[in-house]
Amino acid sequence: MRIIKAALLGLGTVGAGVYEVIRHHQEQLQELVGAEVQVVAVLIQDENKEREVANDVLVTNDIKEILAIPGLEVIFESIVGAEPANRHVDEAIERGCHIITANKEMFAKHGDVLLEKARENDVQIGFEATVAAGVPVIRTIQQQLQLNKIERVQALLNGTSNFILTEMRQKQLPFAEVLKTAQSLGFAEADPTNDVEGIDAFYKIMILSQLIYGEQPEWATVDLKGIASVPEDEIYHSEGRYKHMAELKKVGNHVQASVQPVVIDDQHPLYSVEGVDNAVVLETSLAGTIMIQGPGAGSKPTASAMLEDFIHIFQTNKAAVLN
C-alpha cells in the first residue's frame, strides 16, 4: 500500500490531537484515501522536553531537516503566532507539500498570499480549523453556497468568551472567578488576552471576510471590544443575553466588521448557543438564513477539522489521477 508521509509543525494541544487521531484511525484513513498515513517528523521548540511519539519519528527544531525528508507530502501546522509559522509554510509550499493549518493569526495575515503561492506550486491548503475548530463553516461556504451571495455573517467564534459569559450569567459569578475556572478546565490559556479581548475572534472573522468577499476591511476600522469591558451587573441582570458577537457584511463597496459584546433576545438564532460552543449564522441570497453550531475549541474538534481537510485533499488528488 502507498504511504503518505506527513509532518507536524507544533506538538501542543492541537498537534498532539492530530498525531493521536492519525494513530488511532489508521484503518479508516486507509479506506478513505487509499494509503497508509505515516507521521515521519515533528517540529518542536524544546528538544529536551519529553514527547509521546514513536521512536522512528524525527523530532527536531530545524524545519530544514523536515523539508529534506524524501517523499514528504503534507504538513499539519499548529504553531502559535504568525511567525515563524508563515516562513515555514512558505518553504513547505515551495517544497511541494500540501498544507493543513489551524493557525488563525498567520492565516488572517498571510492567507491570501499563501493560497496564491499554493496554486502556483500545484498544492492545496486546508484551513477549516482556523475559524471554528470542528464546525465546518469553511467547507460549507466553499462547496455548499457557491451560487449564494452571503449578505451578512453573525458568529460566536471564541469558545472561551462564550463559556465565561454563560457561566457568569447562569451562576452570578464574577469575571475573575469564571476565568480561573476556564483556565483550570483547559478552555483558556494562562494568558487569556487573545480570547477575552476579542483578538482571536477578530482573526477568524478576517479569514471569513477574505473567503467570502475576497478582501478584508482595514484592520484599524474594525470595532473590537472584549468581554472584560462589560459591567458584571449587566451580564447578571440584562433582559437578554450577552454574546461576544463577530459580525461581517458588505455595505456598498466596503466590507464592515466588528467584534464586540452585544445583548440579544430569545428570537436571535445565537441566543441558545451556550458554553464553549461556536456558531455561525450566514444570511444568504437564495438559501435563506443558515446556522452551523458545534464545539469550537479543544484537541479533538480541531484535529477532526484538520483530518477532514487532509481527507478532502487526498481524495481529490486520487480522483484527479484516476481521471
Automatic annotation (TrEMBL):
Pathway: Amino-acid biosynthesis; L-methionine biosynthesis via de novo pathway; L-homoserine from L-aspartate: step 3/3; Amino-acid biosynthesis; L-threonine biosynthesis; L-threonine from L-aspartate: step 3/5. Keywords: Amino-acid biosynthesis, Methionine biosynthesis, NADP, Oxidoreductase, Threonine biosynthesis. The keyword Ubl conjugation does not apply. Pfam families: Homoserine_dh, NAD_binding_3. It comes from the Bacteria. Residues 10-128 form the Aspartate/homoserine dehydrogenase NAD-binding domain. SUPFAM superfamilies: Glyceraldehyde-3-phosphate dehydrogenase-like, C-terminal domain (SSF55347), NAD(P)-binding Rossmann-fold domains (SSF51735). Its EC number is 1.1.1.3. PANTHER family: HOMOSERINE DEHYDROGENASE (PTHR43331:SF1). Belongs to the homoserine dehydrogenase family. This is Homoserine dehydrogenase.
